[in-house]
Amino acid sequence: MNSQTQAILATDKRIDGKAISAQVLSEVAEQVGQLQAQGVHPCLAVVLVGDDPASQVYVKNKLLRAAEVGILSVEHYLPAQTSAETLLSLIETLNEDAKVHGILVQLPLPQGIDEIQVLEAIKPIKDVDGFHSSNVGGLSQGRSVLQPCTPSGCMRLLNQVRADLSGMHAVVVGRSNIVGKPMAALLLQANCTVTLVHSKSRDIKSLCQMADILVAAVGRPEMIKQDWLKPGAIVIDVGINRVEKEGRSRLVGDVDYADVLDKVEAITPVPGGVGPMTIAMLMSNTLAAAQKQHKLLSISAIDG
């Protein structure tokens, strides 16, 4: 483990997502500056339908990070009564706008709008959430595609602890399309042996006890205790659960942080672990999308 990693982990085994996300954002800002010098200004279009308070906070934070790294943003706020046809028409306009490199439709969408239909309408090369079926399929095939932000952020956190994950047994708890399944695919690409645990799995506790790496993304507050883990496991806690503790509201993960701390090699806290990485990787995806589109435009110009 190098000195930089030791500084990030500190003495309490905490994997500092805030510090590592700051590194990612610094790298993105530098490369954005290089693109701008070539006359390309990376731009992210954000679409928010309705007035969900949590979604408004998420969008605000994403726009703040974009401004910090020099990525332009275009915002579209639509009322909850917006029809699917209107939303799809807006997406088509953004798809055809060469100045827009990334499109993000904030989820969840109001009832009556098919999320899959909306996500499939976004051009894969502008799909900075990594949710389009072309990107999902490409990820499973090991191709270079835009990856879902949370799983790719988790991989960056893991690589901060271990540069080479080859041969390690990784257990992913949760099989969602947004985290669990793409997380398993990325761990396979990193040459891990992967077990994907879900609600129908038998003896989940025993499966978790086999993990060199455990990624918890199930949405059950502090489900995973010390006796669920093998000594020296690396734990990535994706869960964000609001609970009442000691008379006040608190955010906790799917892992009982205080209970497992003495047993693990390293662990992400909640909050301050995976959360900051998700937005940082969104900025990284927007940069990558701009780079790919600029390259395609350059090739097209040469061919013409």
Features:
304 residues; alpha/beta; Rossmann fold; three-stranded parallel β-sheet; 11 helices; 10 strands; globular; disordered N terminus; THF_DH/CycHdrlase_CS; EC 3.5.4.9; EC 1.5.1.5
Please outline the helices and strands.
Blueprint: H1 3-9, H2 17-37, E1 43-49, H3 53-69, E2 72-78, H4 84-96, E3 102-105, H5 115-121, H6 133-140, H7 149-161, E4 169-173, H8 180-189, E5 193-197, H9 204-208, E6 213-216, E7 234-237, E8 241-245, E9 248-252, H10 257-260, E10 266-267, H11 274-303
Parallel strand pairs: 1-2, 1-3, 4-5, 4-6, 6-7, 7-10
Antiparallel strand pairs: 8-9
Helix pairs in contact: 2-11, 3-11, 7-8, 7-11
Describe this structure in words.
Helix content is 44%, strand content 16%. It is an alpha/beta fold. The chain folds into 2 domains: 38-122, Rossmann fold (3-Layer(aba) Sandwich); 149-276, NAD(P)-binding Rossmann-like Domain (Rossmann fold), CATH 3.40.50.720. Helix 2 (17-37) packs parallel to helix 11 (274-303) and helix 3 (53-69) packs across helix 11. The N and C termini lie far apart (50 Å).
Instruction: Work out the helix count.
Output: 11
Q: Which CATH top level class of the largest domain fits?
A: Alpha Beta
**Rg (CA only):** 20 Å
Structural class: alpha/beta
CATH structural fold name of the largest domain: Rossmann fold
| Cα distance spanning the termini | 50 Å
Q: In sequence order, what are the helices and strands, one letter per element?
A: HHEHEHEHHHEHEHEEEEHEH
Tertiary shape: globular
In total, how many beta strands?
10
Major pleated sheet: 5 strands, parallel
Which percent bin holds the helix content? 40-55%
* Tally of separate domains: 2
Strand fraction:
15-25%
Q: Which parts are unreliable, with pLDDT below 50 for 5 consecutive residues or more?
A: 1-8, 300-304
> How is the largest sheet built, in terms of strand order?
5-4-6-7-10
| CATH homology superfamily of the largest domain | NAD(P)-binding Rossmann-like Domain
Q: Which architecture of the largest domain per CATH?
A: 3-Layer(aba) Sandwich
Average pLDDT rating? 93
Function: Catalyzes the oxidation of 5,10-methylenetetrahydrofolate to 5,10-methenyltetrahydrofolate and then the hydrolysis of 5,10-methenyltetrahydrofolate to 10-formyltetrahydrofolate.
GO biological process, one term: L-histidine biosynthetic process
EC number: 1.5.1.5, 3.5.4.9
Family: Belongs to the tetrahydrofolate dehydrogenase/cyclohydrolase family.
